[in-house]
Amino acid sequence: MWRIVLLILILASLSACQAPSLAQSGDGGPPTATTCLDCDQSAFALTVRDNMVFSLDAIAVNAGQALAIDFTNTSRLPHNIVIVDGDMAVATEVNRNAINQADYLPQHPAVVATMPMVMPNQTGNITWESTQPGTYVFICTYPGHFDAGMYGTITVK
């Protein structure tokens, strides 16, 4: 009996830890990322849980405006953020390049900014400024995370 009560308490505490910036998917499935393309701001809070999805999957800033991301890792695994100048094919190449690098930070000409690994229950930040309008991709380069869906886009207007 006490095991059932303990299990209920654990499950209740885990469900209370959901990041408020995540929205439920339309089919009642797991939380999905949100988009901030018209948020007139340059500083964003990004979180990740064990669902391998950044809390924001698309953000936008103006050219010449510094982008600042404060990252909170609420999952059980390490994560990072690498910003790539290119499309998903380039991001895939950058991610593959990260496998053999220290801290999984790739040495690739398309990488425009990096944040070292953030351990579970820790925080980190990354800042970057682009003067060139375009679409960039941000990814987690810890092995398997990009393939699981840990990426998003940054639109520079």
- Per the CATH scheme, the topology name is Immunoglobulin-like
Listing every helix as H and every strand as E from the N terminus to the C terminus, the arrangement reads HEEEEEEEHEEEHE
| Uncertain residue ranges | 1-32
The total count of strands amounts to 11
* The number of domains: 1
The chain-level mean pLDDT equals 79
Helix residue percentage: 10-25%
CATH homologous superfamily?
Cupredoxins -  blue copper proteins
- CATH class (first level) name: Mainly Beta
Give the overall shape, derived from the CA principal axes: globular
**Largest sheet report:** 6 strands, mixed
Compute the CA-based radius of gyration: 17 Å
CATH architecture: Sandwich
Strand order of the largest sheet: 3-5-11-10-7-8
* Number of contiguous helices: 3
Strand composition percent: 35-45%
For the record, give the distance between the C-alpha atoms at the N and C termini, rounded to a whole number.
Answer: 59 Å
Which structural class do the helices and strands define?
alpha/beta
